[in-house]
Amino acid sequence: MIELQALTKRYGERVAVDRLSFRAERGEVVVLLGTSGCGKTTTLKMVNRLIEPSDGLVRIDGVDVRTLPGHELRRHVGYVFQGVGLFPHMTVFENISVTPTLLGWSAERIRRRVDELLDLVELDPAVLRDRWPNELSGGQQQRVGVARALAAEPKVMLLDEPFGALDPLTREQLQQSFARIRTQLGVTAIFVTHDLVEALFLGDRIVVMRDGCLVQVGTPRELMVNPVDEFVERMFGTPKRQAQLLNDLLGSGEHS
Amino acid sequence: MSEQLALLPAYLTGHVQLTLVALLLGTVISVPLGIVATRVRWLEQVVLGAAGIIQTIPSLALLAMMVPVLAAIQVQSIGYLPAIIGLTLYSTLPILRNTVIGIAGIDPAYTEAAKGVGMTRGQQLWSIELPLAMPVIVGGLRTSTVWVVGMATLSTPVGAMSLGNYIFSGLQTRNYTAVMVGSVAAALLAQLLDGLVRVLEEGVRFRRRGLVAVAVGVLSVLYLFAGVTLARQFIGDDESERIVIGSKTYTEQYILSEIISGQVTAETGLSATVMQSLGSTVAFDALRSGDLDVYVDYSGTIWATILRREANTENRGQILDEVERALATDYGVHVVGALGFDNTYALAMRSADVAALRLRRISDLVPHASRLVLGGDLEFFGRPEWVSLRARYGLSFDRELTMDPSLMYQAVAQGDVDVITAFSTDGRIAALGLTVLEDDRNVIPPYDAVILVSDRLVRDRPRVVAALEGLVGAIDVDLMRAMNLTVDEDGRTPRSVAEEFLAGRSATDARGR
What we know:
The structure holds two protein chains of two kinds. Chain A is of the alpha/beta class. Chain A has helices spanning about 40-45, 70-75, 90-100, 105-120, 125-130, 140-150, 170-185, 195-200, 220-225, 230-255; strands at about 1-10, 15-25, 30-35, 55-60, 65, 75-80, 155-160, 190-195, 205-210, 215-220. Chain B has three domains: about 1-235, Orthogonal Bundle (MetI-like fold); about 240-340 and about 445-510, 3-Layer(aba) Sandwich (D-Maltodextrin-Binding Protein, domain 2), CATH 3.40.190.10; about 345-435, Osmoprotection protein (prox), domain 2 (D-Maltodextrin-Binding Protein, domain 2), CATH 3.40.190. Chain B contains 23 helices and ten strands. In chain B, helix 11 links the parallel strand 1 (about 245) and strand 2 (about 270-275). Chain B is elongated, with a radius of gyration of 27 Å. The longest helix of chain B is centred in the first third of the chain and has 32 residues, at about 10-40. By secondary structure, chain B is an alpha/beta fold.
C-alpha cells in the first residue's frame, strides 16, 4: 500500500506539487493522469525520494519512507523510467540483476530470477540474456526495463510514462503484457501517463492532476460519468470526440 | 649509426622510466581530483584553471624551473626528480579535464536510473559513472601519453637521461643520425604506449579478454622493467661510489666530459657517468649541491655570471686566482686547475668581409655595425659580456638574432648573418673561412677552461682529484680546436675523440718513461 499525505514540492516560489493526498491499496494500480508539467513525475519521484519532498508524508505499507536511507528504500521500490534508462555498458542480464546484486543475492538465485523475469516479459532468455541494450528494439528495451524494476521482488512499483516513447502498436503490446503481469503478480503500483486510453485500460483508479493539484480521483467509470469540472469532462471526452471524428471521416470517404 | 645504436638501451631505458612513472603518477593524481571536481562545484574551476596554467608554461621552462625549486627545498635538484615532477605536472591537464568532461557529460537519465535502482553515491560512481566516462578519460590519458613521451626528451638539460640526449647532443655536434635515432625511437615509443592504452580500453569496453591480457601483459612487463631498473639505479648501485661528470650543451663540453670520465676510470678504477647537455647554471648549482662531482667551466663565465664582476683590466692569472679563491670561500666549489686553453667569446665574421671593410679590431667594426646583423648563441644576449660590449664600444647592430650555437657558424658562412659571437676554440672558425676580431678594449674576460669539483669530492675522493690534476695544462687551444672540428665536421662521436686523446697521452707517457 502506498499512501501520500499532503505531499508538497516547492522550487523557490513555484509550487510544483501542492498538498497531494491519495492512496494505492494493496494490489491496486493508480494512474496519475495530467498534461505535461502538471507535477505527476515529480510526485512519483517523491515516493521513492529521487526528489525530496518539501512537505507532507509518504508511507509504504505503513512505514514513513523518510525513516530509511534513500538507497535502501529504492532497492525495495521497482522503478521504470521514462525513456529507457538501461545502462548501456551492461548486458541485459547485468541490467536486470543490478538491484538483486546490491541486495546481496546469491549468483544462482539471481540467474534463476533473471530467466524467470525474461519469460514474464515475453523475451527469450537464451537469445537475449547476453545482448547489449543497443542491440534491442525499443519495445524489447522497455520490457527489460520492466523486468529490472521487478527484479528484487519489490513491495511496490513506480512507472513513469514507461511506454510513452514507443510506436502505437508496440505500446499496445506492452500495455497488454503489463496488464497480464500486474494481475499475475498482484502488483501495487503508481503509473504516470498523459495518455487517457492507457489510463483507462491500466488504472484501477485514476488521479487527475492539474498545476500540481489533485482535481479528481476515481475509477475510470466514475470519472467518465461524474466529472467534477469542465477540465475533467473535456479530458475524458477526448476519446469520444476522436471516435466521432473517425466516424465522420470514414463516412464521408464512403460517399465520394 | 652503430655507435648511436649502442647508446639506445641506456637512453631508451631512461625514457621509458620517466614516461611510465610520470603517466602513472599523473593518472593517480588526476582521475581522483577530476572526480572530486565534479562533486564540488567551486573546485572544478580552481583545478582546471591550475592545470591550464601549468600547461601554458613552455615545457622546457617547466622542467628547468624544477631545478631551483627543488634546490631551495634541499632535495636532489638535477636528474630524475625534477624531470619526473615536471612531466607529471604536464600530464595532469588532459587526464583531469577529460575526467571532468567525461563524468559531467553522462546523460543524467543514467545517473538517475542508477540512483533509482538503489545504488549509493559510491556505487553510482564505480558501476555507472566511471565506466560510462571511461572512453573520454582514456582519450585524455592517450593525449597525455603522447605529450609526455615527447616532452621527456626535454629532460636531458635537467640531468635525466632520455632519448633527448640523442637530440640535444646530436643538434650540437651536427650529428643528424643521432637526432634521427632519438626522434624515431621517441615516436615509436609514443605509438607503442598509445596503442597499448587504446587496446586496453577497447578490451575492457568490449570485454575482449584476449586484448586486455595482451595490453596488461605488455604494460606490466614495461612497468616491471622500469621499476627494476630504477630500483637498481637508486638502491643497488651505491651513489657515493659513482663519479658524476657534467657537461653543458656543446661539442667541447661533450668531449671534455668524456675525457674526464676516461681519465677518472683509468686512473682510479671508479665508475663514472656523464650527465650530458645540462643548462649552464644548472651544472654549477648541481656541483654546489653535490649532485654533480665535476665539470668544466670557464673563468670568464664564472667571473661574469656567478661572481657578477665587471670586466676588466685584470689579466688572466689574476682572474683565475680570484675565481679560485671566491668559489672556494663563497660557494664551496674547488678549482682543480686550468686545462690549458682559453675559450673566449669572440666576434667573428666572414674573412672576405673583414678584408673588404678593412677590419682588424672590434673598434673598427663600430661605424659599420648599424648595417650588420649579429647572431648570438642562446644565452649571449642575456649575459653581462654583451652589456659591456655595447657600453664600452658603443656597438649597435641593425638586428640581433638568437640562434642555436651549432647553426650560428653555418649562418654566418652562408651570409644569413654578418657577425657571430663565436667561441674561439671552435674549429669551424678556420674551417668555414671566418676571422675573429681583436677585443682591443679588453671587454671580454679571459675564459680559461677550468676543472671544477665539488666539496664532497675533495673531502672523500682525493684520488679522483689527483687523477684530474693529470689533465691540468694538457690541452692547448690548437688541440681543442682540432678535436672540436673532428666532431663537428667529421661526424666522430665525442667519446671516440676523447678515447683517442687519452690513448695518445698514455702512449706519450710510455715513451717518456
